[in-house]
Amino acid sequence: MSRRSFTTRKPALLSEVVELAWVRLMRSQRRIFESIERDLQAEGCPPLAWYDVMLELDRAEDGRLRPMEIERRTLFAQPNLSRMIARLEREGLVRREAFSDDGRGHWVVITEQGRRKRAAMWEIYGAAIEKHLGARLTDGEAEHLADLLAKLV
Amino acid sequence: MSRRSFTTRKPALLSEVVELAWVRLMRSQRRIFESIERDLQAEGCPPLAWYDVMLELDRAEDGRLRPMEIERRTLFAQPNLSRMIARLEREGLVRREAFSDDGRGHWVVITEQGRRKRAAMWEIYGAAIEKHLGARLTDGEAEHLADLLAKLV
DNA sequence: TCAATATAGATGTAATTGCATCTATGTCCC
DNA sequence: GGGACATAGATGCAATTACATCTATATTGA
User: d(Cα B122, Cα B111) in Å, to the nearest integer?
Assistant: First the structure.
């Protein structure tokens, strides 16, 4: 592929390597994410976003959190999360319960079925992470990568 | 935050560090991506996806590519790209031209206005990359990060 | 040459997202 | 106590996405 020169005037401060790191961060995340989503879907699993929510609930005391707390932990936008919880509830993976301390809120509680589903998803999910990420890095590289990415969050 | 122990049975092969690298890859990409999108939007710019397409066209010979070639380079799904091109065309940033070699296809050509818009977006975009990524890494770290991410694509 | 199949790209549709707004309850302060 | 403002969460709606399919043109092979 003949790479022509082309004029991209860069903002004074931005270095080539930073731009390259960004492009690769985008590409690798997107590509691996999509691969993993496909792997999950191929096994009849729900999308990864559901996993994130169920994991937070599974870890939480009594398997329950308030929507705003899930939001804080997962960074999903509030209206989207609200509807996602509705979908999870429709599938019987969580249920809502009254929250007496604050009449505006309620608990979201993971069900037994939800816990089982999460565990089942992890089988696929973990294997997919290994396949798409683990297999391409040594443990040392993975650790180093994790350290570098930690600086970004 | 008291981190309780919880039983997550891992698929035999997946190491802790790989999982951590994956979680951070997701989080950092998503958070920075959203920040950059907000920065662009705050300046009245179209979404980043438009930039990707216009950049490919801007770089291409005669500022033109076939949809399937854009698809190959950007990895957008075909129906989504098809509609994105329609939107770009509606905004006067690209136009379609006949492609005589193959009656099924056509050229997508970037307009002068499209080139200007792309350049204008880059001012914001580049600064945003610097702000959200560059400012948090030394050049050495950025280079190292880029190298590690290269192994994933 | 022509039927069978493959490919480029568009389109219908249902699901999902983003954004603004709405409702209901809580908090603050006079 | 009660008005003004803040917060939790839901909902309406327009835009976007994913997925399946459709149309038109190419290619292939008998």
Answer: 17
